[in-house]
Predict the structure.
Amino acid sequence: MKSFVERTLRGLLTTAEYAATAEQMAISRGALQRVDPRVKVAGILGLIVTAVASRRLAAIGGLFVLALILAMVSRIPLGRLGVWVWTPVLLFTGAIGVPAIFLTPGRAVAAWGGIVLTEPGIRGAAFLISRAETAATLSALLVLTTPWPWVLKALRIFRCPLVMVAILGMTYRYIFVILQTALDMFESRKSRTVGVLAASERRRLAASTAGVLLSKSLLLAGDVHLAMRSRGFQGEVYLLQDFRAVAADWCWLAGFAAVVLVALRMSF
Amino acid sequence: MHIPDGYLSPATCAALYAGSAPFWYVALQRTKRLLNTQMLPLISVFAAASFIVMMFNLPLPGGTTGHAVGVAVAAIVLGPWSSILAISIALTIQAVFFGDGGITALGANCFNMAIIGSLSAYAIYRLVAGRSAIESPRRIWAAALAGYFSINLAALAAGIEFGIQPLLYHDATGAPLYAPYPLRIAIPAMMIGHLTIAGLAEMIISAGVVSYFQRAEPSLLRSTAPGAPSSAEGYQKAGGWRTTRPLWIALAVLLVLTPLGILAVGSAWGEWAPEDFANPAMRQQIAAASGQATPPAAAPQGLRNLASFWTAPMPRYAPPFLKNPAFGYLLSAMAGSGLILLVFLLAGQALQRRAP
């Protein structure tokens, strides 16, 4: 009982903390924070696709260094990036990529006993880890320097349907409402439980909690629908478009485009 | 299961975005038509709840823990198309905002978990649950199987996507540019974890939530259970045509087949009339049916006394007014079945009257 509830509570709290910090960073006065969200979304997505498409480690490394510089000028603490992004990606992708060093056939670079390190294996692992780290850092930069509603509005430049943008926006807001409900449920359960529950009881508790949460969310959806209808909602969705690109934004766009072109030129 | 950026080539990512697009389009159109103005709040709030449920740390048998996607629960509660939308939305927020899964791989993640997961979970659930009552334990099994197999099918798709990367994308030295393992490694590597831990987590959450809904909110299971009676309705309709149709058909077939009894040779042991003991042909049959033991010369006294106690209206399944023995068998069977049904009908009515 203790471990299940506490682990879930810790996970939920970490998510809430991350979201709160991200929102705070997104409105701080950094370099990327000042850029028009449309330019930023297009530019950073362009960099991510380039990092994924690139076939030279130097190009991917260059993009990673650029991401570090962008993080620093945007006042995003590298320590936070290390905890939130680099360490989890390294642990996950490293666990997958490192065995490839030994399992990929090719020219042997070193050997100990029966274990052989191959050149294609090392390069393959390096590609995987560097791409994953670079793309994850760039993704984090986008979210840590742009308030979520602006990211969504900016998605309209990619012809993302209006209704999907609205759903994504509402979902994001309701995540925190339901997150609070889940936290309250787990805390109240924890405060009423003495001793350790059997494993089967813990599973039943988890399933029931999920069921209650889904059931509450459907009730909430009904209430929200009624509230929307009472305010005249007929099914049409409108977004306020208040972005205005200035000369500096066009410079940023040109800069992003130049980096993408150079990286792709290096790769192919 | 959440594929990060860098594991799949841009071409694979583009292909899976393109593969997902028609499903998203159809899902959006169908959900809009079905829910109208309700779509926006329902999908948003349910996607948010699914997102939170995905974060639950589920205790699994063996002492380990795991996270579920909750795709089977979404498919069972919302139906497959709305589930595709809700899970895709949750995956998008996970990828873009929380970095769980890549942005370029979002199409692949949605294709595997939201599309394959929702459609397979729904199909398995409907297939196994059939027309069982909403509160039937069969629906819990159906949800468990739907959760287990849908997540494993999604994992298999991810394993195939990983496994084809080194075949298609490598540099001049043979170094894999994306996911490095071929199909023979990628598929087992994906499946081992999902057949055990992730599959179990999905199974537990799906079965557990459906079991909870059966007890607390059965109405939430209605939309994907057309024609399923609730337990109370099921008991009330137990005598109805739909429930008893197979029994009536079986009874009709048996009635039609009753004349086959004429084809049977010999006599049934113990079903002898007093006069059979005087008939040489029947005596041989009695001896054959009794392990060649010689029957008594005359019918036993007790049998003679009791044989005349009751004269059946249709002796030996051959009513005296019918010449055709086959029709006599059929008529006797119909009369017998009818009498039994009548008795039970009257008894049922009597019991219903006495019920409070």
About this structure: The radius of gyration of chain A is 23 Å. The mean pLDDT of chain A is 87. Residues 1-27+147-237 of chain A form one domain.
